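REVIEWER CHECKLIST
Item 1: Sequence provided? yes
Item 2: Single chain? yes
Item 3: Sequence as submitted:
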Amino acid sequence: MRLKETQRIFAEALLDPPATVKIPALRPPSGAPAVRAATALVRPGARLRAAERIEIYRRSYWCRLLDSLAEDFPGLAAVLGEKGFQRLARAYIAACPSRSWTLRDLGRRLEAWLANHREFAGERPDLAIEMARLEWAHIHAFDGPEAPPLEPEQLGRATADMRLRLQPYVSLLALRYPVDEIRVQAVEACAGDGAAGAGRRLRERMRVLRPAAEPIYLAVHRFELDVYYRRLDQAAYRLLTALRRGRTLGSALDTILEKRSWRGADAAKTMQSWFAAWSRLGWLVARQPSEEGTERETQ
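Item 4: Structure as written out by the authors:
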């Protein structure tokens, strides 16, 4: 048997959830063909049978995946509670197994999957889905790709027909819940009281939490190797979104100048302060003439 075929059989056996992982309606039948096939390739040891040796690898693999997902999504774990999050994590990994060499990508499809499987999203599914969106943006901001930022003097020479873009690691989120605050509280609570204590403290917060009276606009970004959540004015969000979609600077400005309230000296000073802050944070990048298409906006 070729090495590639051996690797495929063993990988399929590992991806089959062990019996200790309870996933109703999603777990493959016990004694799955992949597990039986892998057993035939493994020699028994002095104390363990071949199937028992495979089971050690399977349990270790699944425990590592579950732990990794919990580390990456502490806010979602706080929203759902420990049991609810474990139920979600097991179902998600079974439905969307890792396809990457790095566990960093494990939660890439979690928001979309959760939106289609709201039975795993707890009593407030919209809140849980928004938290998953924020926490994936957090992961992306931490180690997403970076382009050389626009220098202040380049921004000072910008013309209306110039096309800017945002750093790839910056995500723009339009939200209904203050998930940025909830996640910060979850991380702080975990650091002080552990996961169980964090869950208890945040459950009290969940009982009184209501959708924000006004939409929340958020930029998730990094600065000097740390990830930050920056609240945005709605107009600033619209302007950044227009730039991300590939519109010229003049056209992007028109998206907010169409409102009378954004005309005049005060509006101009406000927008100047925005661009100064975005330049200082390194968000703005010069779009190259050879670039085609538009960048994907994170909703």
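Item 5: Key structural point noted by reviewer: Confidence is low (pLDDT under 50) at residues 23-30, 289-299.
Item 6: Recommendation: ____
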